[in-house]
Amino acid sequence: MIGGTGFEVGGEPSLIDTPYGRLMAAATELCGREVLFIPRHGEAHLPPHRVNYRALLWAARASGAVRVVSTNTVGSMAWHPVGSLVIPTDFVDFTKSRPSTFFEEEAVHVDLTAPYCPEVRRALAAGAEAAGALVSDGIYVCTEGPHLESPAQIRMLRQFGDVVGMTGYPEVVLARELELCYASICIVTNPAAGMRKDSMSAAEIRTEMAISARLLREVIEAAITMIPEERGCSCGRALAEARL
Ligand SMILES: CSC[C@H]1O[C@H](OP(=O)(O)O)[C@H](O)[C@@H]1O
Ligand code: HPA
């Protein structure tokens, strides 16, 4: 699991070395399944544009994981109430400065027709339903941050997607490049800028996330039991025809 702002599951902490740097992770068990929990922002809570996304995914694979469940907090650019969940089906990238590939020296073009693993997405949707959460599919728009968006930016971005965050990209792409299954469960913490009269501060967003953390854990625990043992998706063959 890659845990976002305000989400923890506990576990035995350890340091993992990757070619991209060292990070902290915690091994634990959830519902009988072995889980490696990696806090996305690390102990120092790195801002989104400085998160070491390649190290996160590399560490996941090096630990033997084949599936990654990520949690993200998002602002809604549509109708979603605060506290509801969104499972991305697709994404649009508006970031500016992040290393976004493991393949700097060769031309490798992974297919992103279905960027998020359909099997893990299905399990998350079933887990959300079992937990009684309000959940919907949606398109995740990723901004560079670290500032929250302006109302004019949101008027533009809402033509491209449903929810906005700063961390969903390039994780989703890097996971595919490592042939990992990857899906995200997003918690709506606020209406995006300009969607309501009053604004919402980062501190208030964090408070909203804390309120929803227990629900999110319930959803993930239920989802984990619904992920099939064997992979039936094509994520594990992402590189088969990706090289030129
Ligand atoms: C003011 S909160 C913004 C911060 O929270 C989200 O991070 P994460 O997806 O890791 O929960 C968002 O993308 C920003 O990084
Ligand atoms: O409104 C938002 N914008 C960007 N990232 C976010 N993460 C939570 N809410 C937001």
From TrEMBL:
Q: Which CDD domains does this UniProt record tie to the protein?
A: MTAP_SsMTAPII_like_MTIP
Nucleoside phosphorylase domain segment(s)? 2-224
Q: What class of enzyme is it?
A: transferase
Give residues annotated as binding phosphate.
5, 40-41, 167
Q: Which UniProt keywords apply?
A: Glycosyltransferase, Purine salvage, Transferase
Listed pathway(s)? Purine metabolism; purine nucleoside salvage
Residues reported to bind substrate: 166, 190-192
- Give a GO biological-process term: L-methionine salvage from methylthioadenosine
Listed GO MF terms: S-methyl-5-thioadenosine phosphorylase activity
Alphabetical GO CC annotations of the entry are: cytosol
Q: Where is this site: Important for substrate specificity?
A: 149, 202
> Which Enzyme Commission number(s) are on file for it?
2.4.2.44
Quote the catalytic activity from the record.
S-methyl-5'-thioinosine + phosphate = 5-(methylsulfanyl)-alpha-D-ribose 1-phosphate + hypoxanthine
Q: What is one Pfam family matched by this protein?
A: PNP_UDP_1
What role does this protein play? Catalyzes the reversible phosphorylation of S-methyl-5'-thioinosine (MTI) to hypoxanthine and 5-methylthioribose-1-phosphate. Involved in the breakdown of S-methyl-5'-thioadenosine (MTA), a major by-product of polyamine biosynthesis. Catabolism of (MTA) occurs via deamination to MTI and phosphorolysis to hypoxanthine.
On assembly, the entry states: Homotrimer.
Q: Which family does it belong to?
A: Belongs to the PNP/MTAP phosphorylase family. MTAP subfamily.
Q: What's in the misc comment field? A: Although this enzyme belongs to the family of MTA phosphorylases based on sequence homology, it has been shown that conserved amino acid substitutions in the substrate binding pocket convert the substrate specificity of this enzyme from 6-aminopurines to 6-oxopurines.
What is the name attached to this protein's record? Probable S-methyl-5'-thioinosine phosphorylase
Which species expresses this protein natively?
Answer: Methanothrix harundinacea (strain 6Ac) (Methanosaeta harundinacea)
Which classification does the entry list for the species? Archaea, Methanobacteriati, Methanobacteriota, Stenosarchaea group, Methanomicrobia
